[in-house]
From TrEMBL:
InterPro entries: Prophage_Lj928_Orf309. Residues 233-243 have a biased composition (Basic and acidic residues). This is DUF1351 domain-containing protein. Residues 233-265 are annotated as: Disordered. It comes from the Bacteria.
Amino acid sequence: MINELAQPKVDVKDGQINFKNVNQFKSDFEQIIQRNSNFIVTDETLTGSKRARAELRNAAKESAAWRSKIKAELLKPFEDVAEIAISFEKQAKSAADAIDSDVKVFDEAEKQKRLDGLKTYVDARAKELGIETITEFNDKHLIKGNFNGTKPKQKFIDEFIEPELSRLVSEKELKIANAAAVKNYAESKGFEPEGYIHSLDFKTLAQIMGDIDGDVERKRKREEAEKAIAEMEARKEQEKIENAKSTGNKKVDEETGEIIQNTQPVPEKTYNRTLYIIEATSAQLNQLADYMKSNDIAFRGEK
């Protein structure tokens, strides 16, 4: 039964917590479990089974109640102190956060000074080398250990800055060499090189050479097509000439090739008239004669 479960006794001495009767507690609990386990429920054992179930549940309930009680009693002094500690912890954290905000502002200002000093050095070196300056820097390079005040240390320069400047010099030299290669190749193929050289900003030398070769092929095909069209038109023109020779003065329909019959022109009717000139100067008579001659008018004169 439930009163058979011995509860451990709490003993607190000199800040040490000890529990007595723990072994008795374990023994009693084990006996209750063993005594009431493996029941086969039948009509005859139903009442006993319910009693066993109740005993097991009561034992577990009593143990849990005792455990919660002891835990609350033991933690009560600590919880009181914990509330005090938590209150001061919050105050300390708030004060630290306020200082941290000011420290970050100061640190950022100091880092900016170091960055300005680094830029001054890099800009001067880039001008000496004839290259574009470095515009982006890694924050990890701006730590205080890499500087004497705002001036970059020589070790930092040798390990990080000069290698990057050397890389930029090599890139510039390569770009100049590539531009010369593109210029020579484009001009050898009959193209203006400027557009191809501009492509070096976003294409490799091999890609640009491939573009030039592609343009050469497209130009060849275009010229062949233009030549074929010109030859075809020349043949058509020659055929017209030959057709004109074979048909004499007869006209040929260009679409059907049929000869168009020419109609004979009807001659204009002519008249024979006698013209008497009553009075005219010699100059006027000459002008009249010239007019009739120019218009194919046959005439004769008598004094």
